[in-house]
Design brief:
Shape of chain B: elongated
CATH class of chain A: Mainly Alpha
Largest sheet of chain A: 2 strands, antiparallel
Number of strands of chain A: 2
Helix content of chain A: over 70%
Order of helices and strands of chain B: HEEHH
Strand order of the largest sheet of chain A: 1-2
Helix content of chain B: 55-70%
Order of helices and strands of chain A: HHHHHHHHHHHHHHHHHHHHHHEEHH
Mean pLDDT of chain B: 89
Strand content of chain B: under 5%
Distance between the termini of chain B: 32 Å
Number of strands of chain B: 2
Oligomer: heterodimer
Largest interface: A-B, 55 and 48 residues
CATH superfamily of chain A: Sodium/glucose cotransporter
Number of helices of chain A: 24
Low-confidence stretches of chain B: none
Radius of gyration of chain A: 23 Å
Number of domains of chain B: 1
CATH topology of chain A: Sodium/glucose cotransporter
Structural class of chain B: mainly alpha
Chain lengths: ~500, ~90
């Protein structure tokens, strides 16, 4: 499929977006020499993000271009049961509420930079820390890979192949690295404001165009689907309901403890800023995944009978029709596709920054050269990040078939770190041994289930089955391990907020 | 802890409320495969599910603002102090 606006117009808009991002990165880093010399300065914007930057960086990081390009086709294929994409994005806020208030207080007191800082502080165990680092880097790496693949497809699609897939990825990775190196988290958060705004506006206008194409009447659309493909409108079966519950658990726990998500808790300038940002975030799923869901449903009426491969092109197909309405819609669609690229980059930059911070602070700072200066640690993370991207790019040349499958894969392993936060913050009996064995068993179980083709069992995701096993080992193991009162008192002190 | 200090995890009613909303969102309680009447272009089950999804958004947003209060007073007092000095 060729986009109606593929070619010079698409190229111009992409260059424009790239220039704006570089400019914002330059402004964010200008005159701030100390930024490069401090871990919390570079990776957490000096723990001083205000409400606008914090809200938009939470938003633009959580909602990628994939949310549009990948979720609309899923709504197309599954019909109304894809409504689950609204609650599973909302439930993330509930999960934050379980641990963020306390973690924020402790992180300020102990000056945490990465999620691993909490884990090593709480459990004082090399095994737990290294396993958690491994699982989180694995999850982040997979997530970053997914974003890189998406950048390539979006750029190639938008320019009609004028900029080939590989060159598209390389060009935008260079832009991303440039502004990230200039301004660290501050640059990432400030570009997120721009990227978040264009994404929000883009989705609304795109839905408006799609509505125009079907004559503005959603009831007619559903009626037509009910006649031709009744299964997409009918009450879903048991397995789908179980799958909803499972997805709520998997995405809720997984997305809330993403390293870059946890680092946004650390970056807030105050509790007031953090809770107000989360309060606004709670309303974003209906306005983002909810609208994308409607686009997918309208797609069933506009382009009936697409197979799985064909449906993956849905957003492009609709955009072509919207662009042909008139010249204004044409240019809005060009801007919208640029916004999709920008939204993918806004997610990728946060993931890369988080990845680098774990290399700097956790691997290098805790184990390789703990005595190094913070400036040197930051430098290690920057270079390590570039090497990681180079390896991922090599993998990205052979991308997997559909976007959704890899989305589930990354949560399966990452979610196993959850008990160290959700139980570790409140339960003083929880000890290092059971946490280690729980995490390892959960990761092996969910990895094996997924790799052997059992991504879900009776609708329950492999990651959730692994997590349940993990939790059982943590709880039973901690009750069976004898922990001295001295040890428990130490744990209690670490969990305390000292209000 | 003073009375004003609020930590969401300590209040079990928050989580009981959340469980009820989630149970209402997931469409497990409808007859399977039934084709239902439409409301605003949504089949009845999907309309109810969306309605409770919106209630979930409002509930969580409210919880963030009103049931989470740990160090806010201290931080804001410190900020005001800094402002006065500046």
């Amino acid at each position: 499929m060729k986009l109606a606006f593929a070619g010079p117009d698409g190229v111009i808009i992409l260059i424009l977006y790239a220039v704006v991002m570089l400019w914002i990165g330059y402004v964010a880093g200008r005159g701030q020499k100390s930024l490069q010399k401090s871990l919390s300065g570079y990776y957490l914007a000096g723990k001083n993000l205000g409400i606008i930057a914090l809200f938009f960086t939470l938003y633009a990081t959580q909602y990628s271009g994939n949310t549009i390009v990948g979720y609309a086709p899923t709504a197309y294929r599954e019909g109304f049961s894809w409504l689950q994409s609204i609650p599973f994005m909302t439930i993330i806020i509930a999960m934050y509420l379980m641990f963020a208030p306390r973690l924020y207080v402790i992180s300020k007191r102990k000056n945490f930079v990465t999620p691993t800082d909490w884990i090593s502080y709480r459990f004082q165990s090399k095994g737990v820390t290294l396993l958690a680092i491994f699982l989180m880097l694995w999850g982040l790496g997979n997530y970053l890979l997914e974003q890189l693949v998406a950048i390539g497809h979006a750029v190639a699609g938008m320019t009609g192949g004028t900029i080939p897939y590989q060159w598209g990825v390389i060009a935008f990775v260079l832009v991303m690295l440039a502004y990230e190196w200039l301004g660290g988290m501050k640059a990432v958060a400030f570009t997120d404001v721009m990227q978040g705004v264009v994404l929000m506006i883009g989705v609304v206008v795109f839905l408006g165009g799609a509505f125009y194409l079907v004559g503005g009447n959603f009831a007619d659309v559903t009626r037509q689907i009910a006649e031709t493909e009744p299964a997409k409108v009918a009450v879903p079966g048991w397995e789908t309901s179980i799958n909803w519950f499972s997805m709520l658990l998997l995405v809720g726990f997984g997305a809330a403890i993403y390293p870059h998500a946890v680092q946004r808790i650390y970056s807030a300038e105050s509790e007031r800023t953090l809770k107000r940002s989360f309060a606004r975030m709670a309303w974003m799923p209906p306005l983002t995944t909810g609208l994308v869901f409607l686009i997918g449903i309208i797609g069933i009426s506009l382009f009936p009978g697409l197979d799985e491969r064909g449906s993956e092109q849905l957003v492009g197909l609709i955009a072509n029709q919207v662009a042909s309405i008139n010249l204004i819609f044409y240019w809005v669609m060009v801007l919208f596709f640029g916004a999709i690229v920008a939204a993918i980059i806004s997610t990728a930059d946060s993931v890369l920054l988080s990845f680098s911070s774990m290399l700097s602070n956790d691997l290098y700072g805790k184990y390789i050269n703990p005595d190094a200066s913070e400036e040197r640690k930051v430098k290690f993370g920057k270079i390590g990040g570039v090497i990681a991207v180079a390896i991922l790019l090599w993998i990205a040349w052979n991308p997997p078939a559909t976007l959704y499958d890899i989305f589930v894969l990354k949560f399966e392993l990452l979610v196993q770190v959850a008990p160290a936060f959700f139980l570790g913050l409140y339960w003083k009996r929880l000890s290092a041994g059971p946490v280690f064995w729980g995490m390892l068993t959960g990761a092996i179980c969910s990895g094996a289930l997924t790799l052997s083709g059992f991504g879900t069992l009776w609708g329950i995701h492999g990651g959730v089955i692994g997590l349940i096993l993990n939790l059982l080992i943590c709880v039973a193991g901690s009750y069976m391990t004898s922990v001295s009162t001295d040890h428990q008192r130490q744990a209690e002190e670490k969990m305390a907020m000292n209000l | 802890m003073s009375d004003k200090v609020k930590e969401p995890i300590r209040n079990k009613w928050i989580w009981i409320g959340l469980a009820f909303i989630v149970l209402a969102i997931v469409p497990w309680y409808w007859p399977k495969g039934a084709l239902q009447s439409m409301i605003l272009g949504f089949p009845l089950w999907a309309f109810v599910s969306t309605l409770f999804s919106l209630i979930l958004c409002g509930y969580l947003s409210w919880l963030c603002l009103h049931q989470w209060h740990l160090v806010e007073d201290k931080e804001e007092a410190e900020r005001r102090g800094e402002g006065d000095e500046g």
